[in-house]
Amino acid sequence: MSFAEGGRNAGAAWGAVLSMSLCVALLLTAEFMPVSLLTPMAGGLNATNGQIGQAVSLSGFSAVVTSLLITTVAGRLNRKLVLIALTALMLLSLVMVAMAQSFATLIAARVLLGICIGGFWSLATSIIMRLVPAKDVPRALALMYGGQAVAAAFAAPLGSYLGGLIGWRGVFWALVPFVTVNLLWHLIALPSLPTRFKQDIRVFGQLLGRRYFLRGLLALSFTFGSAFTMFTYLRPFLEEITGVGVDTLSILLLILGSAGFVGTSVSGRLVGNQVERLLRLPALVMGSSTLGLLLFGDGLIATGILLAVWGAMNTAMSVIWMGWMSQNVDDQPEAAGSLMVAIIQASILLGAMIGGVLLDHLSVTATFAGSVVLALVAIAIAGNGRKLVKSSA
């Protein structure tokens, strides 16, 4: 059901968009917070650092599975209720982590969080399309992804700092009231979002039969794979090549995350009716920034500038690609969103694996070079974007 079919007043929908933006910030914070608390969590649960890292990655795996199943499993359920249920799962996951006395409990909690991640992202764009008129969708997406910028800027530094003050369990307990408020906000702000039909899983095959969409998914996979091949191993690069200590490292990560606010703001204005011309931009800008780090990463100022550019495009990337989906697969937004989220999550996991192999067997510079190669492939597939729009079908 589109915005027009829902008959909503446009002004009344922005509160719901803001509620979803807060959900994005909390989801990403919950997903990546353990990275900054890995060592104390390992000690508290009698596990190794590697085991905790593997548990963190489980959320990505369950997110892939959930993204492919959510529209079928949810059936004709009102999407407002589904979003509320997913947010409740995030709340339960945080409580389980905070109270965990065993590694097995942590694994179960991360699986639950992955269900929330996969389900939310699969439905998010289609819900945004029902909350605001078509002309406001790019701006609403940028506003929602503003939550990503908040999490990227503050989650890791705050997690590390607060962990030293109140312990890693205290950090997760501190997130609980925020998620509770978000849950109540969903109840109040989201309109009823009934679904007229049950999604048939066969629609995935129909969508993949659209050559422009399949080509877009390939470009998407290499774009995100490139980004996370680099980002996952940014810390060892900064420590080994740039030669920074913990304090400077935190400042550089804050610069990268804060630049995301610029990315979401600008992308909301740039994504118009011809979004295809922007599709190669994320891989081009982020790949060039990574190449710049390989060439000039031993200089602190140059590194800070390049990370700011990379961080701004990192948040703009999601707005651009989801804007493409909203314009070119508007007849099946939930199914298309499910496929895109599955591809993104799988690409993130694969990019981290490729980067890890290059790091272990060669060097961190090889990892960054691998990221540049993946970006070049993404640029080649995306081309000028004309073969990625439905008019080319």
From TrEMBL:
Q: Which residues form a coiled coil?
A: none
Location of the Major facilitator superfamily (MFS) profile domain: 9-387
Family matches, as Pfam families: MFS_1
Entry-linked SUPFAM superfamilies: MFS general substrate transporter
List locations, semicolon-separated: Cell membrane
Looking at the keywords, is Secreted present? Answer: no
Fetch the InterPro entries from UniProt: MFS, MFS_dom, MFS_Efflux_Transporters, MFS_trans_sf
> How is the protein disposed in the membrane?
Multi-pass membrane protein
Q: Which domain of life is it from?
A: Bacteria
Where is the major localization of this protein? membrane
Q: Keywords in UniProt for this one?
A: Cell membrane, Membrane, Transmembrane, Transmembrane helix
Report the GO molecular function annotations: transmembrane transporter activity
Q: Which parts pass through the membrane? A: 12-32, 52-74, 81-101, 107-128, 140-159, 171-191, 212-234, 246-266, 278-296, 302-324, 336-358, 364-383
Q: What is this protein called?
A: MFS transporter
Q: Which organism was this protein described from?
A: Rhodovibrio salinarum
